Amino acid sequence: MLVPAVTHGIAPEASSLMARHVDGALELGVRSLTPMRADPARVRDSTMQVLAPVIEHLRASSRMLWANVAASLHAVPRVHALPPATAWCAHLLAEDPLAGHLEFRGGQARRQATCCLFYRVPGAGVCGDCLFEVAPGM
């Protein structure tokens, strides 16, 4: 949602967004593209219409899942080499349900406020924004 919004000023209509379970993975996508003029509120509302029901349905901590969404959102400007997305991310991360899930240090470094449990994957270590310096019990 954020990349086309920042680069082209458009966002898909919320009703065209979809999420489905495919062979153990969550697949997010767009059924059809009817672009709407983008602004942070529209990006947030459209994204929440898709993610909120998925997060409510999963048998995992909603706090942990929203923290993972916040961490993924925070990575968009870096991963997509899109510095203009930084301001949009800051706006979206300051609103519920994403507010408070990331700890900012010096405006740059960040850590999640909860653990995503990535360290429990054999040989994985800790994720890039883990609240732990080393995996617990290791």
Structure description:
There is one protein chain. With 138 residues, the protein is α+β, with helices and mostly antiparallel strands. Helix content is 38%, strand content 19%. The protein is built from 4 helices and 6 strands. It has helices at residues 2-8, 40-57, 62-79, 85-93, and strands spanning 10-12, 17-22, 25-30, 35-37, 102-105, 109-112. The strands form 3 sheets. Strands 1-4 form a two-stranded antiparallel ribbon. Strand 2 (17-22) and strand 3 form a beta hairpin. The longest helix has 18 residues, at 40-57. The model has no long low-confidence stretch (mean pLDDT 83).
Terminal Cα separation, in Å? 38 Å
Order of helices and strands: HEEEEHHHEE
Number of helices: 4
Secondary structure class reads alpha+beta
Could you say which overall geometry the principal axes of the C-alpha atoms support?
A: globular
Q: What proportion strand?
A: 15-25%
Helix content: 25-40%
The Rg value, from CA coordinates, equals 16 Å
Largest sheet: 2 strands, antiparallel
- Contiguous uncertain segments of 5+ residues: none
- The count of β-strands is 6
Strand order of the largest sheet: 1-4
Mean pLDDT: 83
Protein name: Ferric siderophore reductase C-terminal domain-containing protein
InterPro entries: FhuF_C
Pfam families: FhuF_C
Based on the model shown, name its key terms.
single chain; 138 residues; alpha+beta; two-stranded antiparallel ribbon; globular
